[in-house]
Amino acid sequence: MKEVVVSGIRPTGKLHLGNFFGAFKNFLTLQEQYDSYFFIADYHSLTTHPTPGDLKGSVKRVLAEYIALGLDPEKCTIYLQSDVPQTAELYLFLNMNAYLGELERVTSFKEKARTQPNNINAGLLTYPVLMAADILLHRGVKVPVGKDQEQHLEMSRTFANRFNRLYNCDFFPEPQAVSLGDNLVKVPGLTDSGKMSKSAGEADTIYLNEEASVLNKKIMRAVTDSGPAEAGAPRSSAVQNLFDLMALVSSPETIEFFDNQHKAGGIRYGDFKKQLATDMELFIAPLREKIDAMLGNEKLLDEIAAFGAEKARKNAQETMRQVRDIIGFSNKY
Ligand code: TYM
Fold first, then answer.
1. Which long-range contacts (CB under 8 A, 24 or more apart) does 302-310 make?
2. Contact at 8 Å (CB) between 38 and 69?
3. Which residues does ligand 1 sit against, CB inside 6 Å?
4. Among this protein's residues, is 290 annotated catalytic?
5. What is the pLDDT of residue 89?
6. C-alpha of residue 147 to centroid of ligand 1, in Å
7. Residue 62 burial class via C-beta count within 10 angstroms: exposed 0-12, middle 13-18, buried 19 and up
8. pLDDT tens, residue by residue, 90-111
9. What distance lies between CA 224 and its chain's CA centroid?
10. Catalytic member of 112, 142, 218, 273
11. Cα 263 to ligand 1 centre (Å)
12. How confident is the model at residue 1 (pLDDT cuts 50, 70, 90)?
């Protein structure tokens, strides 16, 4: 039997470069070799209280992006999380053995509690439990994610092992965060705010279908510094971010050229950013074209979502039949 791969992306608008290099790029390769489940994490997006209209729009958009960029419904199972309500049942069971102390210590929860003190809801606190439910529902072992999800995967292992111990069984495997490179990826944003993320603002984020003129403006306005103080001075974090972005889309010669200029203390950030904008546009243009072409394809997207939902539910039902049995619930009525 093939190993199971599971991963998802929250529908919060449209996919950005961080989603692509942190996760999606690996989905494309893994779908070829594994029994893969790729979903749209619409339950998870409720922690930020989107309107029904926004939620629908974002879900449709991300589904269109999944397909446009190469996920193949014949090779992997593509579905909306909310089409598989067994997720919620497993989440409930796992919550009974998830402890307040360990949930409060999760970095992403502490960060949210700090940045949005008026909306510290229980969904945020138990976010890693819902993630564990997504993965364990398919008994996933490989989970392609970016660096920011590493701690959540550690929690998934904790919950899987705790369930097995509690019920004296060996039912759930231990899921591992994976990347096809050597390390889990962190794509920086343009405003030196840390990882690229929509919550850091529009200026921080490069979308996969960014218009050429907007892309150019965003990169030309990216945060830098006042230039290396002397030859050999270390890169500031803002400038390192731009080199990291360049590493994703530019040739080794281009990177070396600007690296040498920085080392010599004579780099001109205007030229550096102009090159980055040019190379980024070369990378984005074909993606933008594919995404735009897929967006109006509503009937096809509906069919793909229905096909995937059925496959995912079937697998989920079988897992939950066994989980209910292990816990001691009746499967009779
Ligand atoms: P989300 O929607 O925030 O991000 C989706 C995926 O994109 C990756 N990512 C990044 N990687 C590198 N650099 C960045 N700047 C960057 N920004 C985003 C994330 O690591 C993620 O892999 N909780 C998840 C969604 C989820 C999930 C799951 C994932 C729900 N259930 C089960 C795996 C398995 C999330 O919010 O990702």
1. 304/63, 304/67, 304/73, 304/78, 305/63, 305/78, 305/79, 305/80, 305/83, 307/73, 308/73, 308/77, 308/78, 308/79, 308/80, 308/83, 309/79, 309/80, 309/83, 309/84
2. no
3. 6-10, 18-19, 22-23, 41, 44, 131, 134-135, 143, 145-149, 185-187, 195-197
4. no
5. 98
6. 9
7. buried
8. 999 999 999 999 999 999 999 9
9. 26
10. 112
11. 34
12. confident
Q: Is residue 9 a contact partner of residue 40, using CB atoms and an 8 Å limit?
A: yes
**Secondary structure (3-state) at 80:** strand
> What are the tokens at 330?
């009746």
302 Cα: distance to centroid of ligand 1 (angstroms): 24
Cα–Cα separations (whole angstroms), residue 251 to 31, 189, 275, 278, 302: 27, 20, 11, 12, 39
Other beta carbons less than 10 A from residue 209's beta carbon: 21
Tell me the CB-side half-sphere exposure of residue 199, using CA atoms within 13 A. Answer: 11
Active site (annotated) includes residue 311: no
From 36, 135, 145, 150, the mutation candidate for ligand 1 (largest count of ligand atoms within 8 A of CB) is 145
Per the annotation, the verdict on 217 as an active-site residue is no
CA distance 181 to 93: 34
Closest by CA to 47, choosing from 101, 105, 118, 100, is 118
Please state the pTM of the whole predicted model: 0.97
| Residue 127 host element (H or E) | helix 127-136
Q: How many CB atoms are closer than 10 A to CB 58?
A: 19
Query: Which residue type does 16 have?
Result: H
- Note the pLDDT tens digit of each residue in 106-137: 999 999 999 999 999 999 999 999 999 999 99
